Amino acid sequence: MPARDTDTAIGAEVFSPRYDLSDSELEELTVRLLAERARELPEHYRLVAIEVDGRSPFSNVGRHVERVVFEATFGNDAAEMTDEYGAYEETSTFFISIDRETHTPSGVLRIIEDSQHGLKSLNDAAREPFNLELDEAFRFHAITDPTEIWDIGTVAVLPDYRRGEAAVSVQLYRAMYLSALVHSIKHIVSIVDDRPLRKMRDFLGIPFVPLADTPPGPYLGSKKSHAVYGYVPHFLPKARAHRDTMRGLLVRNALQRLVDGTEDDSISLDARPGA
Q1: Where do the domains of the chain lie, and which CATH numbers do they carry?
Q2: What domain of life (predicted)?
Q3: Tens digit of pLDDT for each residue in 29-81?
Q4: Burial tier of 162 (Cβ tally within 10 Å: 0-12, 13-18, 19+)
């Protein structure tokens, strides 16, 4: 990725990744992040998505949301999150959704880039229950350059923002897709719980397939998770074709946002496609 201003210090603060912010710390960081990016975001949007480098203190807003959601859903507390993601913190980028009316975060999507530590989903897929060799995955999906892969490390949305066509997950997927175009990313990998994966594929038409035909299994507190793969150039045409299906018609407004980018100016990226 291009070099970025990571805002590694806020005042006298020394940054370290944290998953357990206090209410006051969460509020302060969220308000500061909004203030910094406000000029880029039209005032009429209540929910905005902001891309944040994983080395920035603002990224702890995203980590806090991850922990809150995963602890409630799968029992993953701050210590477990630190243990699981510690090797990947410096190569993480967070797309953070914020509710401007309440000045609180509403959701987050984390991507992990390749490094000396590899990609978390591929590393984890090499172990039980998936037992998938890295070389096999690369051959199966014709991957030749690991720098062209993004790992969706997490998608976490707070309960009040999960339902309806305005669900922030749509905004987060769109933000990730636009950023992937900027950085010439061709391949997406992830390990996803069964329930959100079904929603992503069946209703939004996001074309995830089993990673090298690997069957699902239990993973980090989830009883049934899937190791998945997506080819980025297929995302837009597949989702566009999905609009005309019965399930696509049920969420047509959400698909307009995802496919046509009808609310792209509610998203603040580090760089824009074509910029």
Answers
A1: 23-266 (3.40.630.30)
A2: Bacteria
A3: 999 999 999 888 999 999 999 999 999 999 999 999 999 999 999 999 999 99
A4: middle
